[in-house]
Amino acid sequence: QRQKVPFPTIALVGYTNAGKSTLFNRLTGSDVVAKDLLFATLDTTQRTIRLPQGRPAIVADTVGFISDLPHELVESFRATLEEVGEADLILHVRDIASADSEAQSKDVEAVLDQIPTPEGKTRRVLEVWNKIDLLAEDVRGAVLGQAERLSRDGKAVAVSAWTGEGIEPLREIIAALIDDDPETELVLDPSQGEALAWLYANGRVTGRQTDDAGCTHVTVRLHPAALGRFERQFSGAGQAGWRRPEPLC
Ligand SMILES: Nc1nc2c(ncn2[C@@H]2O[C@H](COP(=O)(O)OP(=O)(O)OP(=O)(O)O)[C@@H](O)[C@H]2O)c(=O)[nH]1
Ligand SMILES: [Mg+2]
Predict the structure, then answer these.
(1) CATH code for the structural domain at 2-177
(2) CATH class given for the domain over 183-243
(3) Which class for 95: exposed (0-12), middle (13-18), buried (19 or more C-beta within 10 A)?
């Protein structure tokens, strides 16, 4: 049934106690049990969220990873692995304030490497460096700086699921990473304010420049069906005020 859902799916994975359920609650505004004990979460839990620009997505909280999994948990873990394999985006939640952070991360990566990716899908993993509120003053700047550099490539982002710090940037990066709509370039006449507003309302405008002639060059991510609607709505007689890019406006 999950596969019929037309929304992108996001799986929260990570070492046990990394803060997955706390982050899940923060992102979804729900109330999943988060406890300072091993394996507080024994099954997967899913909720729909709205990302910036109103795009819906499904977030799944999962069972924590650990080096030697107790065998009672292998079944829940198997369901988790299946779920993770199908996800459009994997959020690898790390307790960045833990002394074991690196070793835990290696363990999680080793498990992720064993999960097959369905055909035609590319695996995308975003590291969420959680618990930055617990970082000592002397390391905080360096850790945040490193996360900031990695975040430009959509590789890592620093947050505190507890205080909410960094959650908005995380939501923005998630939205950008699961946005598979093709990028289209359009040139709008100065009179096409309405078309421009339509593009903002129905797509994700990633670039916009006005040239010397007053024409607006827009780069926008649009679902193919939305592009079709745009073409129909804004290309009527006497209204051909937009076109594909050419050297001159
Ligand atoms: N200070 C601080 N504590 C956090 C943060 N995120 C989570 N915690 C705490 O870390 C503990 C574990 O959090 P959970 O959200 O249950 O962790 P989990 O990854 O879901 O754990 P499992 O379900 O057992 O795998 C709880 O005591 C949380 O309150 C954070 O950003 N800062
Ligand atoms: Mg949990």
Answers:
(1) 3.40.50.300
(2) alpha beta
(3) buried
**DSSP track, 30-87:** ------SSTTS--S-EEEEEE-GGG-EEEEEE-PPB-SS--GGGHHHHHHHHHHHHH-
Q: For residues 194 and 207, what is the distance between their CA atoms, to the nearest angstrom?
A: 17
Tokens standing for 214?
A: 């007053």
Give the tens place of pLDDT for each residue, 161-179: 999 999 999 999 999 898 7
Tens-digit pLDDT profile for residues 41-78:
656 688 888 888 777 788 999 888 777 766 666 666 77
- Whether the CB-CB separation of 203 and 196 falls below 8 Å is answered with no
Give residue ranges with CB within 6 A of ligand 1: 14, 16-22, 34-36, 38-41, 64, 130-131, 133-134, 160-162
